[in-house]
Design goal:
By secondary structure, the chain is an alpha+beta fold. The protein contains 8 helices and 5 strands; from the N terminus they run H-E-H-E-E-E-E-H-H-H-H-H-H. A hairpin with a 2-residue loop joins strand 3 and strand 4.
């Protein structure tokens, strides 16, 4: 028996049944004994077969990668069922509930769900702290997301743009998870006892709100860096266009002179002069240098 199975067996004795959403045997068991189907997971928060169904899209860290999984909590007066797409998403919550079982008497399923939400909220705060550190150094997906300097290449800017896009999507998923967590907590308050429904539930809602504001702040940081990146890219493109403009301005007069002397005129007297060739070369160099001097004096090469 794996560690996950041992934890689920211990939690089942306390009234929490954990099931895999992708396991056909678990789906058949839920349909036969509780009347719950996989289709119930596709709906929002609602009542079905005497259960209060609380869906949650949760972001968690698994082996160094940030992932998202859908969880459906089904709460009845005598049992709590969690239908999990990824069991790793509730690993911390299972440990927290097991700790409470060892410290005190048996609790009703609604109280178990409340402890699960508390553990998930604490996990969200830890996740946001790691994301904040990652945004200050490098992107969670191992790509740097610091805004590149003006001397960075286009490839560096493109890599950073991809990393920032992934970071923005991740922060948006965290914000959505906190919104769903707060909604689940508000609906759960109706099922809690008087001792938990008051100050503990209000404190949890306030803490969830603070985590959501933190996530919004981090999301704003990512958006600001994206705007800075677009500004850097515009400046970089302007630099490239300016270089081509200077090259064109420098070589256009010599090209004009070369085109003139490339014509098949019958008589060109300056070519009969001993120093005619040197004169043409000197005029060509002069016409090339004059635009360059003008551009430099205007400061367009800075």
């Amino acid at each position: 028996m794996s560690r996950l199975d041992e934890q689920r067996a211990a939690l089942l004795q306390a009234g929490w049944l954990g099931m895999d959403a992708h396991d056909p045997a678990s789906q058949a068991y839920l349909a036969q004994h509780f009347g719950l189907t996989v289709a119930a997971q596709q709906h929002g928060l609602h009542y079905s077969q005497g259960f209060l169904l609380l869906p949650l899209n949760w972001v968690y860290l698994d082996e160094g990668q940030y992932r998202q999984a859908h969880i459906l909590f089904a709460l009845r007066h005598d049992i709590l069922i969690s239908i999990e797409q990824a069991p790793q998403a509730l690993a911390c919550a299972r440990l927290a509930v097991l700790d409470t079982l060892q410290q005190g008497p048996a609790l009703p399923p609604a109280r178990h769900l409340f402890n699960v939400l508390v553990a998930l909220n604490q996990q969200a705060h830890s996740l946001l702290a790691m994301l904040s550190t990652a945004l200050g150094a490098s992107h969670p997906g191992s790509q740097g997301c610091e805004a590149p300097s003006i001397h960075s290449g286009v490839a560096d800017i493109a890599t950073t743009a991809v990393a920032l896009g992934e970071a923005e999507e991740l922060m948006a998923n965290v914000i959505q998870a906190q919104l769903m967590l707060a909604r689940a907590c508000r609906w759960l308050r109706r099922r809690l006892d008087d001792d938990t429904r008051g100050a503990p539930a209000r404190a949890l809602l306030a803490d969830i709100g603070s985590a959501r504001r933190h996530a919004l702040f981090q999301h704003g940081r990512v958006r600001h860096r994206q705007q800075s990146l677009m500004t850097t890219l515009d400046i970089k493109q302007n630099q490239i266009i300016r270089i081509f403009t200077v090259v064109t301005a420098v070589f256009t007069p010599p090209t004009l002179v070369a085109s003139f002397y490339g014509q098949n005129f019958a008589y060109m007297p300056e070519l009969e002069l001993p120093w005619g060739e040197w004169m043409v070369m000197a005029l060509t160099a002069l016409f090339a240098l004059l635009p360059l001097v003008y551009i430099k004096r205007k400061g367009w090469l800075r």
